[in-house]
Amino acid sequence: MTAAADLPTTTSPVTPAPGELEFVRAFVNTLDIEAHTERLADPASWAKWAAEHDLGAAATAADLREARALRETLRQALLANHDRAPLPAETIEALDAAADRSRPALQFSGRGSHLVPRGSGVDALFGRVVATVAAALADGTWQRLKVCASDDCRWAFYDTSRSRTGQWCSMSICGNRAKQARYRDRAGAREQP
Ligand SMILES: [Zn+2]
């Protein structure tokens, strides 16, 4: 269990992930499980989200189905990050398919190389996700990107705790809720003969 001392106490509930990883976090959070809002529901809702992230608006219903499927396999990977587990097989398959479809370009610089997304709309989205996940896996920031341990939340957050053991999107909301649930369970157990 997370020691209270490891948790940031004064930061806002939403600590942005570094660089482009924040984009991946935003992508995973296009579905708000608790509020029942889906920003990739249809081409109109997508167009609004795409504009906020400088992606072209072109997307068919089939594209959005693919995008939602990729997003949910990423959510599984972010859950696996709590255990520092490798990428789940379905996530690997979805990322491979996204890379194959969007074909980001490999660009060299003086000290290395990176992937550059191409195209627009869902292709640009996939290219950006693929490039960012690849870079984050390489630099070690990936394992800090997680989804909230609460099943009815699963909001993506960046774990800034020193020990990398953060469980909740927000200690003041989900963390306290979990604590109260445990307290109720214990209280309930005591009442049972
Ligand atoms: Zn949460």
Automatic annotation (TrEMBL):
InterPro entries per UniProt: ABATE (IPR010852), ABATE_dom_sf (IPR023286), Znf_CGNR (IPR021005)
Residue ranges constituting the Zinc finger CGNR domain according to the UniProt record: 144-186
Pfam family, one: zf-CGNR
Record protein name field: CGNR zinc finger domain-containing protein
Organism: Herbiconiux daphne
Lineage, uppermost ranks: Bacteria, Bacillati, Actinomycetota, Actinomycetes, Micrococcales
